[in-house]
Fold:
Amino acid sequence: MQELHYSRPTTVADAVVALARPDARVLAGGTDLIVQVRENRRQVAHVIDLKRIPELNAITRQADGGWRIGAAASVGRLGRDAAFAAEHHALLDSARLIGSLQIQNRASLGGNVCNAAPSADAVPLLICLGARGVVAGPGGRRTLPIVEIATGPGRSSLAAAEILVAIVVPAQTGRWAAKYLRFTPRREMDIAIAGVGVWLQLDQQSAITGAAITLASVAPTPLVAAAAQTLLVGERLSPKLIAAAAQSAADEARPISDTRGSADYRRQLVAVLTRRALEACAGELGIHGT
Amino acid sequence: MKIVVTLDVNGEPRQALADGRDTLLQLVRDQLGLTGTKEGCSNGNCGACTVLLDGEPVCACLVLAAEAQGAHVTTIEGVAVGNALHPVQAALIKFGGTQCGFCTPGVVLSAVALLDRVAVPSDADIRYAIAGNICRCTGYGKIVEAIQAVATSRQEASR
Amino acid sequence: MTSIREISEPSLQVVGRRIPRVDAGERVTGRAIYCADLMRPGMITGHIKRSPHAHARILAIDTSKAAALKGVLAVVTAQDFPVVAPGTIIPFGETGADAWVSALTVIARDRVLWRGHAVAAVAATDPYIAAKAVDLIEVSYEVLPALMDIETATAPDAAVMFPEHKPKGFDAANPAPRNVGGRTLIERGDTAAALATAAVIAEVHTITDTAHQGYIEPQACVAEAEATGFVTIWASTQGAFQAEIQTAVLLGLPQSQLKVIPLETGGAFGGKITVHVEPIAARLAQKCGRPVKIVTSREETFAGGSGPAAAARIAMKIAADATGKLTAIDGRYVLDSGGIPGTPTTLLMQASAAPYQCANLRLDGWEIVTNKPRTEAYRGPGGIQAAFALEQAMDEIALKLDLDPLELRRRNAAVTGSMMPIGTPFPTIAFTAIADRIAAHPCWREPLAAGHLPRGRGLAFGYWRGTSMTSAAHVTIAGDGRPMVTMGAVDISGTRTAMAQVAAEEFGLGVADVHVAMGDTKSVGYSDAAAGSRVGRTMAAAVSYACKDALDQLRARAAQRLQCPLSELAYAGGVFRAGAATISLFDLMRATLTEGAIVGRGVSTKLPLGVETAAHVCDVEVDPETGQVTILRYTAFQDVGRALNPPAVEGQIEGSVSQGIGWALTEGFDYAADGRLRNASMLDYRMPTALDLPTINCVLIETPVPDVPYGVRGVAEVPIVPVAACVGNAIRRAIGVRMTHMPMTPERIVMALRAAATEPVPARA
Structure:
């Protein structure tokens, strides 16, 4: 473990400057980074702590009804925002699967996104909800869909000196529901063997006007089950439709076998969790008999 | 790189010299001599190093010492007031919720934080609150019972 | 949590009462001192260099760069330790132990035997320098084939790990298969004939993965060497004397020049009997003249820095007549010893056959050497693996005969005077009483309510032989009449509290009137390790003897003071009485302390056998789509002899059951073919959290062991024995599939269900 220099900028601009060094890395909650550095899995000499930058800690409801979540705001803090919790309980529930309470009091949604673990629990629903990342870098700011950030295990599309500043969850309209389900052998303190995030939007006649399904732990990155989404849109929820979507999601998964589970088992879990997540959304939307 | 960290620990102003790589766990144990906070895994997976950072339970092994600059930290040494035990501590003694004792400081802090946050926690609330504290000796039953008893007596006292 | 006790002894005032631990206060306030907490003036940090290979010859170790690093004060390799030859027997329990095993476990000499095996160590002024120095040590290896499981190690073309090792029971005419560490055969009657004529046969072949004790405090110690040569070690150990004897031999030090002081132990469960870091820290301290602390990391602890519990393969075949009477038990037990031979199989073989009366036995035990860390004890070593096979086979018999599983066990249960597997009659044994209690208990009587998912109820019996070994204590009386007990055993489970109760009982005083301390190896007499559920019973005896010895000395003084013959002197509740004349213990000692100390001495050894028996009942719910098992209800019945302190006994049972549930469902080491441990963290080695366990109910039954002070039985090992079988039987009843690979992970359950779906549908229970 090499020597570590710590800095704590208070503006995004200062953070971007500090991050210009090739051996620098941003620190949000630190629950992944500190372990990686200690185990020499990441060579880091400078850590840039983002938690004292007000913008990165703010949780605000925007004029259009969307939410802007500072990238370094802890999951614990997010959960204490009653308005956010009421509107986005599914997203919050997914974030509350990250580690223990102790971890959640440090870990941030931004970190969950940027650490780019395929098993990141909060990411599938961010993708399903159409969330975008606000990124600041030496060249200024840009936004991009969250789905475009992870490019492989531990790798992101952000440039070396870029910082994820905030996550914007757009306003959700109409009748909608979301659900993330994962499977772990332990109830807590575990990593998803497979996870499935589902978002559904219905019109007044209960036809599906929008559908999103994103899978965790079954590909190098969170994986959008595009064919399963297509199957759903324009249809009405039925056991048959849900089964077809679940099967499609399982077919789209590209799992590997490792100490946490075999590819075969993961695929089965994707089918089961997709079905159950769709059923949970249907239940929340008052559609019964599915 | 050595850094000076100034923080409030258990209500007392403290200052310590830390290595840039040191965690809050090393700071409280090695620099401040508060060895009640235990190291079981160094990876946030056991909860033995649980402390309250600005009132919230965290794993001290996952916080850099430098991050604690200006923070309020409560360690197990700050839970009792003098020799007056916190009700959670008294209940753990009474119900047999401590055996080898290595996880106990972390369990106490998780329980104290829960009871600060939730007036009347359910069995599920309690189990969730201590799910990040691995205990290998008790099977958790007597710990849950102890925390439940504190909540119950507090509820009765407030009637 | 809920506890029901059957018997109480009205004559006892303190023993058997529910009291809090005398040392609980320091635990809940963080004041209890464990090794990592100890600070010594000038203390520095030791780190260990470990092998990246599972099996390799060490060609050379170059420590020069490490030694030259500023801040590094000492470096050691095996060359710094004397060679300990195989067969160097040291005192250890009832059988002795081979110090060669300890020496090889602590540091590799010419060959590494598992990945993570220690090869060198450094002491440096801070942990970052120590870590860097470890990286600077250059070791050249000739990599040898790794034998990572029993099949590979016993293959006809496998490399032989210890060609010089000659296991008993083989000769030139009957050569041992490759890498056999030892073999034990227990035979009675004619098993083959009984199997040939049986009405029903059940055969269960089980696999158990390597598991870890999972103590939360890693391996740790502090060592300090004085200029005079005297070495002090503060240890996290189950046995200070065992640590001292092993360390003395490994260092070539007379025991007069070595003291081991046991500190609080943050969990051990069998994994802190053999030394791991103590001799290394001591040698480093000797070399640099500074106190050295070594605390292993979690990854080191799991991956080679400690001894896990043995993996096993058991082939169990049992036969019964049409009424369910057992006619044969035919078990083949193969244990994976890890990298050094010496894992005993006899206790687990007995554990698997002892619960039942059966005329024909063939118990065939093998231990195999592989390139995993050398295995060590874990709570009733081998018991859970053995019961996982036998008790599931019993369940198969019950299913085949359509018999109530409790009734089947009752018909066969061992009783007082029936024959043990080794051919001697059982002393008092309580299976029948336990069966009666189960039959009357709601956990068995109440039908299991249907749920949304399949549910099942399981039952399993458990047996552990128990042991005695030896314990020593002395008691001295303070100037105010208060007894002060020093015991030779380490307190890993509430021993100080239970012994305070015993001493208080003996003197007719309250617990607050006595003090009990753990002695170090220079302050009290030899005691065996706190292992094998022996300390409670043998230390209670030693303390009782010591108190009686002290009281005899006090009586003589009191008689002199009261000027009465000894025969007229009575003692009760802290007061000596002769007719109307009295003198309190307080006044007696105030008056006579300076006439000379009272020192009562107690040594207990070879106590009568007190077998441990238990039976567990659990209800589970299984999600067949994910394989997740939820334990809805768990009840543990156990004959505890006499509960000195019932909450402590319940604590042992609840902790055992939770460890058993962990191993049953989620805990197993996952070794790659090259010896790497894939799940060397507390994230991926999944020990149960508070959300994974049910409330564990305890039913304590007390049948005291005759001729043992207070009738105490061991209580802490048998409650892990039936757990996996009990859960496995419940799963079988829920989903119709027999799970034979432990841990019974969700994935294994899903795959077993899938395999079953392509076979004819098994009969639903």
Remarks:
- Chain B has five helices and five strands.
